[in-house]
What we know:
By secondary structure, the protein is α/β, with parallel strands linked by helices. It has helices at 32-35, 107-119, 131-134, 136-148, 164-171, 186-193, 197-200, 253-256, 276-282, 288-297; strands at residues 5-13, 16-21, 24-30, 49-56, 59-65, 71-78, 81-89, 93-99, 124-129, 152-155, 175-180, 205-206, 218-222, 228-231. The protein has three domains: 5-67, CATH 2.40.50.140; 89-231, Rossmann fold; 245-304, Ribonucleotide Reductase Protein R1, domain 1, CATH 1.10.40.50.
Amino acid sequence: MIETLRGRVIKAQSGFFTVQLDGEILQCRIRGRLKQGKKMGDIVAVGDWVQVSKIGEGEGMIEEVEPRRNMMYRVDPRPQGEYQQIIIANLDEAVFVFSCAEPEPRLRMLDRFLVIAESEMIPGVIVANKIDLTGMEKAKEYFERYEEIGYQVFYTSVEEKKGIDALHDQLLGKVSLLAGPSGAGKTSILNAIQPGLGLAVQGVSEATQKGKHTTVVRKLVPLEDGGYVADTPGLKALDLWDIEPEEVDGFFPELRALVPHCRFSNCTHLHEPGCAVKEALEKEDIHPERYHSYLRMRKVEEDKIPWL
Ligand SMILES: Nc1nc2c(ncn2[C@@H]2O[C@H](COP(=O)(O)OP(=O)(O)O)[C@@H](O)[C@H]2O)c(=O)[nH]1
Ligand SMILES: [Mg+2]
Ligand SMILES: [Zn+2]
């Protein structure tokens, strides 16, 4: 038996992994034995908890990878079959940043992000930025519906330094991923939380960003008071990956609770009699825009979506 130590992978680059142990950092490679067999996915990813053995000054070997609590991944078609590329593992939360104006929030996109997070059981947190441009009333018009179904929403303004401390507290001690459309204010928010953090987290996922051709470095950027922000390029276009249309209602918290009350167990909540979702919609217990997002994700054709 070799003696091993437990640590977290905080950086991955071309087959090398930086592992943070208690008070010490090791540059590691993967023990050959781990590479045997399963070749159709990444063996080690940023965010993984691993057991490492020391093999020299500042160097180690990854001997074991602990089971992942959750992960964001991408399926990459390759000649030998589909390859599962892990972007990040073991997230404590996904923070979705949208601006109230400039650009206008694309809530359809937010709904997709939230479904992805739900499907991996990653708590989703929402940031409604640039409230200085709209005022709280307009901001609430967009985002209050999310608070009503249980999501935490931080109303922020980098310009007026509002809500930044509360968001900072939310990040402390956790591994967080920030995602959102370009221009929403992710870099500005990170810099407001900790000077230079925005620059350090360059890959901050932007749904509309065009692919830049550079070596992929994935890393966790430490916060001074504890916790990490993920810098994970490759998550440019968060997509629904392998979520089946029939599962989608389970990833809308406000629908999930109603589904067992529909008359038919395979109810699509579109036109069936005795549908608890439609009933709630009529009583305005469900926001029509969220229902619309649900139908879109269910791949109900646009012309079959009832006018709302
Ligand atoms: N008025 C206002 N502008 C902001 C705020 N936060 C960011 N911005 C501006 O929005 C633009 C995009 O910000 P940036 O941080 O680069 O967004 P990112 O693409 O999400 O990283 C910049 O011109 C920022 O100065 C805010 O709270 N209020
Ligand atoms: Mg940015
Ligand atoms: Zn139904």
